C-alpha cells in the first residue's frame, strides 16, 4: 500500500512538467542546453528500462506491480522516440511580429535537418545523415519543414509556459491540409519527432531561449497527436551552412540520452575533448550509449562481452580486430565495434565494467580517419562504467556512471596522451590500473598490438594472477564458440 501511495505521488509530480532550455549560440555553433535534470534523468531511466526489457524478453518489475520507471505506468505511453527503424521528423518554424527569420536562416533549416551529403565529417552532416551514420544504418530519419508560422504577438509576449504551449498548439493545428500520419513511423498514433525552430535576432548571443518537452498533449486535425514530448530550440544561424550539432544533441534527449557537460553542474560531465555529442561539443556517441540504443549488439556480432567465465572455461589465444567506431561502410558480423569487460555476465550491462572502443576520426568524427603519418587522433578509448541501478532505475553512482580512463593520469583528456596506442597495456599492474572503484581487483587486461586507419588489433580479456601460469587471453572476432551465450536475468537479480 505504501508503494502504491509513493508511485501515485510520483505520477502526480511528473504528470505535468516543463523543461526550460537555454541555448547559447556563437558563430553558428550551439554549445549547450540547460535542460531540467530531473526530466532528462527520467527519460534516461526509461531508456534503461527499455533496454533491460529487451534483454529479458519482457518487462522487469520492482515487484508484481511496479516497473522501474514511473513513466511506464502512464497508460503504457512511452516518452522515447524509437532509436531504430524509420522515424519521421516534423519541423515547425515560428517567427514573431518583432523577430523574423532572415532569408538565409529559412533557407538553411531544410538542409540542416534533411540534406543528403557524402561528407566524411559527422559535424558537417545534417540531422538525418548524422544519425544514419552514427547508428550504422539502424535509425533512418526523414521528414519535412512546414511553412513558417507567424505568431501575432511580440516574442516577449510568449515568456511563460502557458502562453508558449498555447502558441505551439495554435501554430501546429493551423495546418489543416496536412496528413500528419505520415510523420508516425512506428504507427503509435503520435508524431515521432516534433521540432520547433524559433526565430532569433541574428548575431545575438545569450538571448536564445526555448522549451524542451513536455507540452500538453495536442490533438491534431486528422486524429493524430503530438505527445507530451517535443524539441524546441532557438534558431540563430545567419548563414546557409549546415550546422546541426544542437539539433542532433536535443534529439539525443528524445532517444533517452542524458546531458554530459559541466556548464550547469550536471553530475556526469564528460571532458569536452572527448567530443561526445551529449557533452558541449561533439561528433560521437560512446559505445555504451550505442548499445543502449540497440545500434550495436552481441546478436549481430558488433559487441563482444568478456567475463571471468571466458578465462575459467576457455583458454583460446586469438587476436581481436576492433574496428573504428567511425566506420559505417563495413558494418557486418566481422566488424566488432565494442568490447565490454565485466566480471559477472549476469549483470551486463548494468554493473561496473570497462568498455573498449577504437577511434580514428578526431574531433569531427571523420569516417575516413585522419590519414598520414600522425597517429595523434587514433587510439583505443577506454570507458570506466558503473551503470548499476537501484530499484527506481537510477544509477547508484550518477557522477561516475561513465568516465574515460585517463592514461596520462591527468585531466583534461587529450587524445595524444590518453588514447591507448600500439604497445600500451592496461592491467592491474599499470597506472591507472584496471581495478574498479574503491580499488577492487578485476584482472581486466588490454594490450594494443597494432593500429591503422581501419582497426586496432588487441589482446584483451582477464588475467588472474592466482592462475599458474597466468593465461594470455585474446578474443578474436565474436565467434559463438568463444563468447558464451547466457540467458539474461533481470537486473534486479
Can you tag this structure with a few keywords?
9 helices; disordered C terminus; 493 residues; five-stranded parallel β-sheet; disordered N terminus; alpha/beta
Question: In words, what does this structure look like?
Answer:
By secondary structure, the protein is an alpha/beta fold. It contains 9 helices and 20 strands. Strands 4, 5, 6, 7 and 11 form a 5-stranded parallel β-sheet that branches. The chain is elongated.
The dominant shape is elongated
Q: Which spans have pLDDT < 50 for at least 5 consecutive residues?
A: 1-32, 60-77, 203-214, 234-240, 312-317, 369-374, 465-493
> Which bin fits the share of residues in helices?
10-25%
Oligomer: single chain
Per DSSP E runs of 2 or more residues, the count of β-strands stands at 20
- Tell me the structural class: alpha/beta
Distance between the termini: 23 Å
Secondary structure tally, helices: 9
* Major β-sheet annotation: 5 strands, parallel
Order of helices and strands: HEEEHEHHEEHEEEEEHHEHEEEEEHEEE
Rg over alpha carbons: 23 Å
Strand % is 15-25%
- The average pLDDT is 75
Detail the topology: elements first, then pairings:
Layout: H1 2-14, E1 19-21, E2 25-26, E3 29-30, H2 37-55, E4 85-95, H3 103-114, H4 127-134, E5 139-145, E6 149-150, H5 161-172, E7 193-199, E8 210-212, E9 218-219, E10 225-226, E11 231-235, H6 245-255, H7 287-292, E12 303-306, H8 308-313, E13 320-323, E14 338-341, E15 352-359, E16 379-386, E17 402-404, H9 415-418, E18 425-426, E19 444-451, E20 455-462
Parallel strand pairs: 4-5, 4-6, 4-7, 7-11, 12-14
Antiparallel strand pairs: 1-8, 2-3, 9-10, 13-20, 14-15, 15-16, 16-17, 18-19, 19-20
Amino acid at each position: 500500500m505504501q508503494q502504491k501511495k509513493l508511485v501515485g505521488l510520483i505520477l502526480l509530480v511528473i504528470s505535468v512538467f516543463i523543461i526550460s532550455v537555454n541555448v547559447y549560440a556563437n558563430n553558428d555553433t550551439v554549445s549547450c542546453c540547460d535542460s531540467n535534470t530531473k526530466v532528462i534523468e527520467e527519460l534516461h531511466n526509461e531508456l534503461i528500462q527499455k533496454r533491460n526489457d529487451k534483454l529479458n524478453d519482457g518487462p522487469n518489475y520492482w515487484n508484481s506491480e511496479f516497473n522501474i520507471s514511473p513513466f511506464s505506468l502512464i497508460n503504457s505511453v512511452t516518452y522515447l522516440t524509437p532509436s531504430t527503424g524509420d522515424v519521421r521528423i516534423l519541423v515547425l518554424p515560428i517567427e514573431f511580429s518583432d523577430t523574423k527569420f532572415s532569408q538565409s536562416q529559412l533557407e538553411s533549416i531544410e538542409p540542416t535537418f534533411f540534406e543528403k551529403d557524402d561528407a566524411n565529417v559527422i559535424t558537417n552532416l545534417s540531422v538525418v545523415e548524422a544519425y544514419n551514420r552514427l547508428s550504422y544504418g539502424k535509425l533512418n530519419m526523414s521528414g519535412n519543414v512546414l511553412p513558417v508560422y507567424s505568431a501575432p504577438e511580440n516574442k516577449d509576449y510568449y515568456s511563460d509556459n502557458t502562453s508558449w504551449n498555447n502558441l505551439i498548439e495554435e501554430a501546429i493545428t493551423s495546418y489543416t491540409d496536412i496528413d500528419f500520419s505520415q510523420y508516425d513511423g512506428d504507427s503509435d498514433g503520435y508524431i515521432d519527432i516534433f521540432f520547433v525552430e524559433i526565430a532569433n535576432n541574428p548575431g545575438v548571443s545569450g538571448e536564445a531561449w526555448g522549451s524542451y518537452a513536455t507540452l500538453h498533449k495536442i490533438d491534431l486535425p486528422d486524429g493524430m497527436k503530438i505527445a507530451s514530448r517535443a524539441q524546441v530550440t532557438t534558431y540563430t544561424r545567419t548563414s546557409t551552412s549546415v550546422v546541426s550539432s544542437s539539433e542532433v544533441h536535443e534529439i539525443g534527449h528524445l532517444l533517452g540520452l542524458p546531458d554530459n557537460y559541466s556548464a550547469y553542474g550536471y553530475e556526469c560531465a564528460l571532458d569536452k575533448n572527448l567530443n561526445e555529442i551529449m557533452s558541449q561539443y561533439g561528433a560521437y556517441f560512446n559505445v555504451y550509449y550505442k548499445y543502449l540504443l540497440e545500434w550495436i549488439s552481441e546478436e549481430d556480432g558488433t559487441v563482444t562481452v568478456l567475463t571471468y567465465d571466458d578465462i575459467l572455461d576457455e583458454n583460446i589465444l586469438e587476436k581481436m580486430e576492433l574496428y573504428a567506431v567511425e566506420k559505417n561502410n563495413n558494418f557486418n558480423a566481422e566488424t566488432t565495434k565494442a568490447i565490454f569487460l565485466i566480471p559477472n555476465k549476469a549483470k551486463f550491462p548494468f554493473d561496473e565494467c570497462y568498455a573498449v572502443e577504437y577511434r580514428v576520426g578526431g574531433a569531427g568524427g571523420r569516417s575516413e580517419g585522419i590519414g598520414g603519418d600522425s597517429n595523434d587522433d587514433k587510439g583505443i578509448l577506454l570507458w570506466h562504467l558503473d551503470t548499476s541501478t537501484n530499484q527506481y532505475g537510477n544509477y547508484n553512482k550518477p557522477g561516475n556512471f561513465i568516465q574515460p580512463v585517463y592514461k596520462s593520469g591527468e585531466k583534461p583528456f587529450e587524445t595524444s596522451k590518453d588514447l591507448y596506442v600500439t604497445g600500451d597495456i592496461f592491467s592491474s599492474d599499470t597506472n591507472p590500473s584496471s581495478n574498479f572503484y574503491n580499488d577492487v581487483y578485476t584482472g581486466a587486461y588490454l594490450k594494443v598490438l597494432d593500429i591503422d586507419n581501419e582497426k586496432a588489433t588487441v589482446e584483451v580479456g582477464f588475467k588472474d594472477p592466482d592462475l599458474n601460469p597466468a593465461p594470455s587471453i585474446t578474443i578474436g572476432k565474436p565467434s559463438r564458440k568463444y563468447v558464451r551465450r547466457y540467458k539474461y536475468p533481470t537486473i534486479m537479480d
